[in-house]
Structure formats: structure tokens, C-alpha cells
# Entry
Amino acid sequence: MEECHLKKQHEFDKWYEEEKNKQFCLDEALAEYCTNDVQILTEALIAFRKKIHRN
# Structure
């Protein structure tokens, strides 16, 4: 368990070092998140409708 935690901590530390000096724009991040969320929901709805129409 401890080894897994240390690996995840190392991955986070590496990511943080790469990202810490980059500018973060909340509006852009939210827009990207919402676009991605809508895409996932659309694909799920299409898959659901296909499954319903087969039965």
C-alpha cells in the first residue's frame, strides 16, 4: 500500500513541476470541461438509444 502511495505521490510531483509555472484560466478550463461533458453525454445517449431500439 505504501509503495502505491509513493508512486502516486511521485507522479503528482512530476506533474506539478511541469504545470506550476503555466498560467491557468478557469473560464477556459470550465469551457473545455463542459464541452467534454456534453460529448460524453451525447455518446452515452446514442449508445443507449441504439440498445433500446435493438430490443
DSSP finds two helices and no strands in the chain. The chain has a mean pLDDT of 95. The radius of gyration is 19 Å.
